[in-house]
Design brief:
Elements: H1 2-28, H2 31-38, H3 40-57, H4 59-62, H5 103-139, H6 141-155, H7 159-174, H8 176-181, H9 183-210, H10 214-221, H11 226-234, H12 239-262, H13 274-282, H14 291-317
Helix pairs in contact: 3-5, 3-14, 5-6, 5-9, 5-12, 5-13, 5-14, 6-9, 7-9, 9-12, 10-11, 12-13, 12-14, 13-14
Length: 323
Amino acid sequence: MTADRTTDYALVRRGLMARFADSARRAAKSDIAHSFFRSKVTVLAALVTAVIMLSALFAPWIAPHNPFDPATLDLLNSELPGFWSTEGDPQFLLGTDDQGRDVLSTILYGSRISLSVGFASVIFAAVLGISLGLLSGYLGGTVDAVIMRIAEVQLTFPAILIALLIDGVFRGLLGGAKHDELAFYVLVLSIGLSFWVQYARTVRGSTLVEKNKEYVQAARVIGIPPLLIMIRHVLPNVMGPVLVIATINLALAVILEATLSFLGVGVPTTQPSLGTLIRIGNDFLFSGLWWITIFPGAMLAILVLAVNLLGDWLRDALNPKLR
């Protein structure tokens, strides 16, 4: 009996591996893969993005120091230059800040926080926007009118003002200490509520087209509930533009988080993001300690540029008129 089970497991494993290999071969021969590997800029942007994200993800293991552990900090190591200067310390490759923290380690940990806020806010905005867009486009009538009027009102304000308003409301409701404890979630909520409109308007437009097609009408005739029709049939056919928006919005969310942190309304200084590091280093920029702010700023610029390039490629690759 045991031998039969082992044989069955082996056959199942081989079947799954064969399917995976077949799917991989199909993906490699697809138009999107061809478009990706044909563009050297896109490949380079993907590699840079992957390196930054993996470095941020594994920061606790690859960072030379833990910059947020007070027990490991030494003020005697503060304001040291990096590898370019003979006055630097080899253990601090990019120098140290005013508190003796290793700049390279703070960048890795700061990127982790910035990307976490960016991904979480994009997911939140996408879920909210897609849900409201589906309801607005499929149901129409009063529901459509209310959702679209709210979206139009929000579009009259810049995203940063909406984020500042939401953050200010929570700061007033929670108080300073409690707000700092929940700063990550407040940031995600603030940025997410600033970006949902794009998803809602895009999904609504696509839903208006899809709901009049024959496969949706057939689903209605056989009695499938509207909610299942929206999820099973309409949603998969409107996800192409959403993926493009999500990719570009990731870069915008990271920039917005950095801006809010630079203004002092982001994550607390005990666990700073890239924006907080730039704000801290800005105070020492004209005193000759340029590396404290330049290197975090360069990391932010490289990350945003790479993600934007991927978003531009994805937009063109998913556009059937450009194939």
